[in-house]
Amino acid sequence: MTARERVASTRRTLGAAICARALIWSAAIAASLLAIAGVADWLVGAPRAVRALVLPATIVLALAVFAYALWRGRRVSSLAAVALWLEERVPALNYSLVSALESSTSSAMLEREVSAVTWMPVVRHALGHALLPPLVILASAAALLIALPAGVRARIAAPRVGDTLLRPAVAPASLRSRLTPLVADVVPPPYTGAPRVTIEEPSSIEALAGARAILRGRGSSDGITATINGAPVSIADSANRWRLEIAMPAKPVALELRDRTFARTVILVPHADSLPVITLLAPARDSVMRIPAGSFALTAQATDDYGLDAGWFEYIVSSGEGENFTFRSGVVRRAALAGAGDAPGGLLLRHLISKMASTTTPTPRGSEPMPTAARA
């Protein structure tokens, strides 16, 4: 193997080592930043906005470290630079390697001088010296990350509302209140199509009447009491968490929570679901006909704050005279609506009812004015 070929082989080895070193340094810095953030969150509790920045900052910093490490090793692309690097570390070469590379036709004497020198032990020593520090830092940071509680790692990796319960308590159990931290989940009635909402440290909960409020805290429920207007509310245990579930009442009430000498009050404020608003657009007014014959169009509009399940026209037919009257009722073109899941309820119902009312409908003999109806 000629001197040039040996230098080229050494360059490939050094290039691979530079890439590996860049990867290890970037991983070490990333693991260190995550570990530091985890320890800080465990000890003092970092806000969610701060924790949300940890992962993006870690990725950016790791990429910057990787790029900088590659930039520092950019000279490995030159055979002459690799040769000079070897000359500095292997005095026995006596610049014969550089001379052999610079000459257009390598002389046999220079080749013999270069072939007599072995530099791979020096290369391996240099590589070990370069790779050892980032490996040590990476191993230490990884060990610290693994030692952190799983809840802390989850809070750093994927911050979300309600993850305060994942952070392990630092104070002894006898000195801390199980009522703090407190997380509330509000589950709206299914027909609304509204999403589940999570509230951290609630002092009050406002929700639709009929919704479910679920309060969760750390630790066992043993010794924790909950009352509403003096009536006890049951508390259950779930995965080392206490859990209280209650339906939103018809009127505002105070939920009293107690854990030994600690107390907490949560106000439950319900609001009622509004009724659908129905407007008969056509016919524009009541009409009296001596001979009920022919046809007319019905047009109506209905809106609701959450959505509508169905819409239809109803009629009532009365007949008779004096005190003897009979009544007959019926439904015209009942239509199932998509509700809150597909479109705003008012817009959807307006479109479908207008569409189904565009056809003419026979007038029942002796009929009263036809109202519209909708069910939310």
Kindly describe this structure.
It contains 8 helices and 17 strands. The protein is an alpha+beta fold and 376 residues long. The strands form 5 sheets. Strands 2-1-4-8-7 form a 5-stranded antiparallel beta sheet, with no helix packed on it. Strands 3-10-9-5-6 form a 5-stranded mixed beta sheet, with no helix packed on it. It has a 3-stranded antiparallel beta sheet with strand order 15-14-17. About 9% of the residues have low confidence.
Helix-residue proportion? 25-40%
Helices and strands, in order, run as HHHHHHHEEEEEEEEEEEEEEEHEE
What is the gyration radius calculated from CA atoms?
A: 39 Å
- N-to-C span: 87 Å
Shape label:
elongated
Would you tell me the overall average pLDDT? Answer: 83
List how many beta strands DSSP finds. Answer: 17
Summarize the structure.
This protein is an alpha+beta fold and 376 residues long. The protein is built from eight helices and 17 strands. The strands form five sheets. The chain has a five-stranded antiparallel beta sheet, with no helix packed on it.
